[in-house]
């Protein structure tokens, strides 16, 4: 962690422990905007992570997005230091993939053997 990231972490942590209680914990996303910004700065550096956090805070409005929004693992392909707005996601969320569960249908009478085994063998 370089000095810029360390200072940003201390400022964000200070906000979380002091001002956040007075402002109210009403973030529309999980993780909160301050936690998201801190994680983005730690993962992508002060410049890129700071812009990601700024874009997230701009989306966290009454008419903005809500829900699970995770820090992306990689920077957007078109991002560059001289185009800082390209680091942030200005619409939508980065939600994890939906958990899918296959339903298992019962055999009915429970007497039929599993598929692939002959009827007479266990």
UniProtKB/TrEMBL annotation:
GO terms for cellular component: plasma membrane. It is a peripheral membrane protein. Residues 102-122 are annotated as: Disordered. InterPro entries: Membr_insert_effic_factor_YidD. It is found in: Cell membrane. Pfam families: YidD. Keywords: Cell membrane, Membrane. Could be involved in insertion of integral membrane proteins into the membrane. Belongs to the UPF0161 family. NCBIfam families: membrane protein insertion efficiency factor YidD. This is Putative membrane protein insertion efficiency factor. It comes from Chelatococcus caeni.
């Amino acid at each position: 962690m370089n000095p810029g990231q360390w200072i940003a972490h201390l400022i964000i942590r200070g906000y979380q422990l002091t001002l956040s209680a007075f402002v109210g914990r009403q973030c529309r996303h999980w993780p909160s905007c301050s936690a998201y910004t801190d994680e983005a700065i730690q993962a992508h550096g002060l410049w890129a992570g700071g812009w990601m956090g700024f874009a997230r805070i701009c989306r966290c409005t009454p008419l903005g997005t809500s829900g699970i929004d995770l820090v992306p693992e990689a920077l957007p392909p078109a991002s560059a230091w001289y185009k800082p707005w390209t680091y942030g996601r200005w619409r939508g969320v980065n939600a994890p993939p939906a958990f899918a569960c296959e339903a298992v249908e019962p055999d009915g009478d429970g007497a039929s053997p599993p598929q692939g085994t002959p009827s007479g063998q266990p």
